[in-house]
Every structure is written in C-alpha cells, then in structure tokens.
Structures
1.
Amino acid sequence: MSSDKKYTSIHYATYLELHKLLDAQHPRSKELGQEAHEETLFIIIHQVYELWFKQMIHEIESVMTMFRTNNVHERNIDEAVLRLERVNEILKLLIQQINVLETMTPIDFLEFRAYLFPASGFQSFQFRCFEVMLGLKLEKRIAYTSHKYYKEFSPEEQLTIEELEKSLSLFDLIQSWLERMPFIHFEGFEFKSKYLHAVENMLKKESDAIMQSEYLNSHEKEMRAKMNGDVSTFFKNIFNEEFHNQQISEGKVRLSYNASIAALMIQLYGTEPLLQLPCRLLNTITEMDELLTNWRYRHAQMVMRMLGRKTGTGGSSGHEYLMETVKKHQIFIDFHNISTLMIPRSDIPELPDVLKKELGFSFSQK
Ligand code: HEM
C-alpha cells in the first residue's frame, strides 16, 4: 500500500503551485494610486529573471560540486559542459528578454517609477550569489555605496553571501583543476622553445606583410612594426613565472602561472582526444563570461533608453555605473586572453609520440 502512495496523481496547477506564482503580481500603482498598465510587465519580467537566476545557480552549484574534488572524473566534465551550456542558453534568453521590456516606453515607465524607490535590481540576492559563485571578488566591484553591497540583504542572506565570498568560486575550482593537468610538466618535451620559435615565425610573417603592404605609408609601417615588437615581448614573458606573478600582484592578471600554461596547451592541442572535453569546457566558460558581459551591456543600454541621465532607484549614477560594471566585472578575462597566445595550427609544435598516445585514451589526475 505504502509503495503505491508515491505514485498518487497530481494536478498541473498543484504541481507548479500556480496559485502562489500567479498571485504574486501586485502593481504598486494600483495599490497606491492609479494603476499603470505597464507595471504588470515590469513585475513579471523581473520575476521571470529571478526564476532563471535560480536555475542558473542550481546548475553552477552542481558543476562546482563536481570540481570540489581533487580527482575530477571525465564523465563529470561532460556533464559540467552540458550544464554550463544550459546556463549559456539561459543567459541568451535573459539578453533577449530586454527586447520585451523595451516595448514599454520611457514615459510609460514614469507612470509607476516613483512607487519603486529605493527598490532596484541592485538588491537582487540571487544575482549577487551568481556573480560571487562565478568568482567576482568584493575588491574588484565598483562600489557606489559607502556600505558593502550585501548590506542590502536580510541578516541570513548577508551570512550566505559572506560564506560564498570566503569559499572557493568556480574560477578558483577551474584554476586548480587546470593546475593539476599532468601533461604540462611532461619530461623531455621542449614545448617552450618550440612554441616561442613558432611565435617568432608567425610574427615575422606578420611583420613582412606589414612592410610589403602597399596601403600603409612609412610612418604607419614603423608604428605597426613597433606594436609587433611589443607583442613579441609579451609572448616572451609567457614563460616567465616571476613576471607572471608580478602581473598577478599588480592585479593585471588573475589566473595562476601553471593554470595559464595548462589553458594554453589545452587550446593549442584541443583536438587531441583527451583534450577535447577540457577544451569545450574552457570555451563554454569563456562564452558564459561573454554572455554575462553582453547582458550587462544590454541592460545598461536599456537603462539609458528608459532613464537617460537620471540616477537609479537604487541610488547609483544609473547608466554610467552600469557601463563601469561592463568593463570591470568580467571574471574569466584571462581565459579570453589565451587567444592572444594562439598561433596558426600549422605552426603548433608536434607532440612527442608518447604524449600523443597518453592523450589518446587515458587521462588521470595526480
Ligand atoms: C525599466 C527597466 C529597468 C531599469 C530602468 C533599470 C535600472 C537599473 C539601474 C539604474 C541600476 C543600477 C542600480 C541603481 O541605481 O538602481 C540597475 C541595476 C540592476 N538591475 Fe536593472 N533596471 C531595469 C530592469 C531590470 C531587469 C528586468 C532586471 C532583471 C532582473 C534588472 C536587474 C538589475 C541588476 C541585477 C542590477 C545590478 C547590476 C550591478 O550592480 O551590477 N534590471 N538597474
């Protein structure tokens, strides 16, 4: 009898708790004055965002759990990629939804905006959790209030954020997974000198193309050659661990030296069977960072359209503050920067047979 019980039937509305969900839209304009038609859209769109934030946190949390171990299983990487790809699809939706909101005109928004102070998306607890879980650090945040951003939340929520701030983020977990890649320390493979030789070849070809161009005058050629020289110095420093650590201490780079070299190797040799999934993982994370930045930019643009130069209900300068976050709140920027280090496929140093064989079937962590 009791075993049958778990299959009792349920109604669609009960399962989805629609009575709660559909009874959660109460325009303040109706309560406090004349109902503004557009306020329902404004409420629903924010609620939908919060639901998607919940789903994204659910996915990120599960991926972080997979990477909290010192021995990440390949099967987990596949699952992690699928879940992160789902997050990316949700982010695309979030960007698109702004179009729906923009069917509201700035003048219609003013019909109810005065009822919203000091409420703001700035107080979205879930959005902050998402950012912190990915790895946005307190000291990197653009601050426009004298208090920490999470002082906006309830005491329990503040505790949760403080805990999250102290724990390892997705960035930290991916970084230590990269640091554990065994093949970066492979004996007898002269990757460094071969790679630098290939870089020199690539830069020489570019330099020849500049010098032989019929479209550039001599001053332009000189400038381009100088820029090429700077790029060459940049490449030479790639394997300078001390220089890399100096860049980290100056806040110019975040990803550790070993993790950066592993990320470079994964991108260069990403077609080797055992590196295909790690390569997809890095690309998915880079895309996630890009999509979040796109959302920030799209939201800032929409704010400019709705408010112009007006300040935000949460007390920031509005568009200006949001544009600063577009530039400064990117988390995985070092993953994007790996592209600087790419060289043509034809110039990539050949892997020794024994390493090729290793990357062909089994892959184990230290
Ligand atoms: C008419 C529509 C909107 C306007 C005018 C607007 C305006 C603003 C402004 C001015 C800020 C900066 C903080 C402040 O001073 O209030 C802000 C922050 C924010 N808004 Fe919106 N917003 C709108 C719609 C949305 C929607 C639909 C969401 C989805 C949840 C959203 C999420 C956020 C988030 C997460 C922040 C914090 C961004 C950060 O600090 O990095 N906003 N919004």
2.
Amino acid sequence: MSTAATRNVLVLGAGGGLGQALIARFLSDPEVGMVIAVSRSGQTKDLSAPWLSQSRLVWIQSQYDEQSMLEVVGKLVPYAGTFSRVCICHGILHDDHLWPEKRFEDIDASAMLEIFQANTITPSLWLKVLHKTLASKLPCIVAVFSARVGSTSDNRLGGWYSYRASKAALNSLLKSFAVEYARRLKNVKLIAFHPGTVDTDLSKPFQASVPEQNLFSAVFVADQLAEIMASADLDGQLSYLDWAGKSIQF
Ligand SMILES: NC(=O)c1ccc[n+]([C@@H]2O[C@H](COP(=O)([O-])OP(=O)(O)OC[C@H]3O[C@@H](n4cnc5c(N)ncnc54)[C@H](OP(=O)(O)O)[C@@H]3O)[C@@H](O)[C@H]2O)c1
C-alpha cells in the first residue's frame, strides 16, 4: 500500500549536507505544504540557496538537549498531525577534536560519548518527544539516518569503533521504537536509512579512497530517499534500507 500525498515535512538536523538537500527536495514538490527545519544554528549554512526565502520554509533553533527539544515540540503544536515525512539527519564521524578509531587503543571515552550523544541519543529523544506531534490518521514516514557500518553482520573490517557502535545501537533502538509505535502510533513507519557515501562535510576527509561513481551528491540521495518514502508501507516494521531502497541485514 502506498502512502497518501505528502503534506508537511519535518527535517531534524537540517543544517548538514543531507538536511539541506532534503529541504530543497521537499520544497520543490508542489504536494508539500510547509517544510519545518530544525538545527543548532536555526538557519541555512548556504545563504545563497535559492529556496532560502520561501514562505513555505520555517526554521527552528535547538541545541538538542531534551528541554530544548520539548520547546521545539511546543512550537510544532499548530502542525500536530500534519506531518507525512520526517527526516532525522543527525550524525558525526569526526570533528576538530575527534577522529574515527583505527585500532582499539584509539578509543577515548569522551569522544565515544560525544558520538553516541549525536548519533544515537539525539534521534531517540526526538522519537520520544514527537509522538503526540506525529499521531494522526495521516500516514507518516520517518527516515532516521543510520549507516551501513551500523550493520553488525556486515562488519568485516572492524575499526571506527564509536561510529559503528553508535549506528548499531541506533538501529537497535529504532527496532524497539518500531515495536511500540506499531501499538501506539499506527500511522508511523520507521526507516533506518543508509545514504551511501555522500559528498558532505562528514565524508570529506575519507573521499579520496572512494571511486568517483560511488560518491553521491546530496541532491541525488535526497531524491532517492523521497522516492523510497513515497513507496513505503505502514507495516509496523523497522526497515533498514540503503539509498537504492535495498534491505540491509542488521
Ligand atoms: N555523508 C555520508 O557519506 C554518510 C554516509 C553514511 C551515513 N551518513 C549519515 O547521514 C546523516 C547526515 O550526514 P551528512 O552527511 O549530512 O553530515 P553533515 O553535513 O556533517 O551533517 C551533520 C548533521 O549532524 C548534526 N550534528 C552535528 N553535530 C551534532 C551534535 N553534537 N548533536 C546533534 N546533532 C549534531 C547536524 O545538525 P545541525 O543541523 O544542527 O547542524 C547535521 O544534521 C548522518 O546521520 C550521517 O551519519 C552520512
């Protein structure tokens, strides 16, 4: 069963490369009403983006602690029950003081905590606080950005301990959310999404080893995800899908 026409769209972690591309993709869809974008900065990074001044786009700022997320939920009250697409885009792999571990001696507790906070805890808190906002008769497809490296059965190379584990833990939490949502929020379908290797800040330091044809633009992946969401079924299950819509083994 395909879902009904898209209504309003919520993009959480909207300031990153994939978040921005999703905003542009949904704003280009005449079936979409409003796009609500939430990020730490509360605005786009690309001030020349042609869609910036669209009146159908609303930005909300959040620092992603639970109190500030609840304030976002308060601002979403006028839109409650109208979201047909939600994209949760948070994720860090590296920053100015952390780098993915090559060997177990590189594991650092504070870096691991920072990665879990962004990649695992923040998306889970959104799924906790948003349930009343999403409850509706309108089908609502929620895509949470995971990664193929979060697949335990696919882990042949090791390394990247914290990032891998944060995404594996995210997948596990999403499975539990799917079980409970199937009882309490029957209009919501959850997808753990692997975008492939995408040309954004997150992958920049690692792109040299990626064959050109395997490095996707964020625009391409946003299109792929929009198509995947449009054909998703409300089956009460968590789907773990890649950019081509193919299932990944947990
Ligand atoms: N790019 C790839 O090759 C690739 C591959 C596999 C999976 N992914 C996943 O795709 C998603 C989007 O990544 P991207 O490529 O768009 O990366 P990006 O451009 O670096 O965007 C980073 C995202 O993470 C959020 N973020 C950063 N630090 C955070 C923190 N401390 N707490 C909470 N959120 C934080 C940002 O939120 P703000 O909007 O507030 O800035 C933004 O949404 C991530 O989950 C990533 O793991 C990407």
